[in-house]
Amino acid sequence: MTESHEKIEVRIKYNELEKTFFGTTQEVWLSLEKFFSHLVPTFDIAKKLLLNVDLQELVQDCEGLIGFSKEGVTLLVPRSKLTDNETLCLRLLASYVGRALGLLPKDTVSREELQETVGKSGKITSTRLGELLKNDIAIKTLDEEYRITTLGVVQMRNESLPKIKAKNMS
Questions:
Q1: Considering the domain boundaries, does residue 157 fall inside one?
Q2: How far apart are CA 8 and CA 23, in angstroms?
Q3: Do 118 and 140 fall within a single domain?
Q4: DSSP one-letter code for 3
Q5: pLDDT at 1
């Protein structure tokens, strides 16, 4: 069997990764083998560590807790049934969901809007926001507004939303 010195090109696309291999048949074959044996399993492992949010599931989880109208965001749970932090997180989550669904122009909320949502003094609101920032539930943007983090969304979905739903039922 004679070895061909002709060059070949093989292009592979795997999720967002696109790779092109160029060389002799043997070089390309070895590169492909390395790609499949090393890189693909690494991406599969890494995907397990990524915090992802399934928007459809999140919307289902938020049903009965938040609402959107032409006036804006509405929390459907009485404030008296929520802690200050739950209220702030639910409002930030509503902005996240509203933006993701195209119902709101942005996913950030001003401190004043959050203070109005909580119905407490500016000092209490600032203290509670500081707690959320410290715990990586929210971040403060360059334009001095607040946004829920991906970690915050995941924690809300896994921990807080079930508790809030239970409070709302009682």
A1: yes
A2: 6
A3: yes
A4: P
A5: 42
